[in-house]
Amino acid sequence: MDKCFRIGDFSFRLSCPDEVRPPENFMKFESDADAPDYAYRIALADALPEPEGRRIALRKDLLVLERDGLETRYVSETGAAPYACYRETAADSAEILLLPRVLGELKYDTMFSSLFAFERRMIGRDALVLHSAYIRTERGAILFSAPSGTGKSTQAGLWERYRGVKQLNGDRSLLQKAGGVWQACGWPVCGSSEICNNESTPIRAIVMLSQAPENRIERLGPMAAFSQIYTQITVNRWSRDFQNRAMDLIEALTREIPVYHLACTISRETVELLADTLENDERRQENGYGRKQDHLQ
Predict the structure, then answer these.
(1) Nearest to residue 241, comparing CAs of 126, 104, 74?
(2) Pick from 230, 231, 129: which is nearest to 171 by CA?
(3) Per the domain annotation, does 121 fall within a domain?
(4) Where on the phi/psi map is residue 285: left (φ > 0), alpha (ψ -120 to 50), or beta?
């Protein structure tokens, strides 16, 4: 296979042998880009090369090395031997050596996308990957963010059921500005929800979720919004430059996009509470009151 793809405004060429079959959701991002920004080449290997370079990160599922400003990553399942080696060969290209034993596992979005270090490319384009489910309403995208198991896709599903909106992704969103407006863009990983669409929508609000016996909602101030969103952003914590840029982007995001904490049940009342809160706040914003209040926070 030799095809081009686009995620947000990042375009890339992927070359790989026929045995490597990207997941169906990944193929939704196929593009006809004439001059892609980056090139990936996947090759099958009987064995992975010996690690070279300065070790900058070690986790149970990842070893990261650096040499002359270029990264090499050994990717593995937790506690197992590595099954892939990603190594950057230039500023605009990388090769991925893959052991044949995992070919059958590449059908899983998370496993396939982990080969490409996409978040490293995205931060260079002022884009963030947020752990979130998101829906498209008439006034823009609402993103539900929380740790796994909290009910992100459940809350998105309630809006589908009671408000007739469309859920665009059940697990990840790419956040990026286009034309001066923050957009929620498609991402080729959707977790267990199996909901993945390659569509972009201006962001209306970000909603941080927690489970509770009764519903309550509050709009978060800048510091609280920053700290909660940071925990759900994909961040290369071994890279100071990455962390600094991510924090700058989150700060800009929280200045421009309202962030709420919604302690919620699984009910129609949860949908109505959030809908009413957003509509009331937007009405106040349009009348000028919200801008004054934001300035005072």
Answers:
(1) 126
(2) 129
(3) no
(4) alpha
Tokens read off for 161: 């059921």
Position 281 scores a pLDDT of: 94
β-pairing verdict for 84-90 and 70-75: antiparallel
In-domain check, residue 122:
no
CA angle 292, 210, 228 (to 5 degrees): 55
Distance of CA 46 to the CA centre of its chain: 32
Tell me the C-alpha distance between 207 and 229, whole Å.
10
pLDDT at residue 290, as a whole number: 53
- Stated as kind and residue range, the H or E segment containing 95 is strand 93-98
Helix (H, G, I), strand (E, B) or coil at 40: strand
Q: 97 is in which domain, residue-wise?
A: 2-116
Is residue 136 located within the same domain as residue 218?
yes
Task: State in Å, rounded, how far the first CA of the chain is from the last one.
Answer: 53
User: Does 292 score more than 60 pLDDT?
Assistant: no
Cα-Cα-Cα-Cα dihedral sign, residues 119, 251, 133, 174: negative
116, 147, 182 - which closes a domain: 116
For residue 106, the one-letter residue type is L
Q: In the structure, what pLDDT confidence band is assigned to residue 127 with cuts at 50, 70 and 90?
A: very high
Backbone angles phi, psi at 38, to 5 degrees: -150, 160
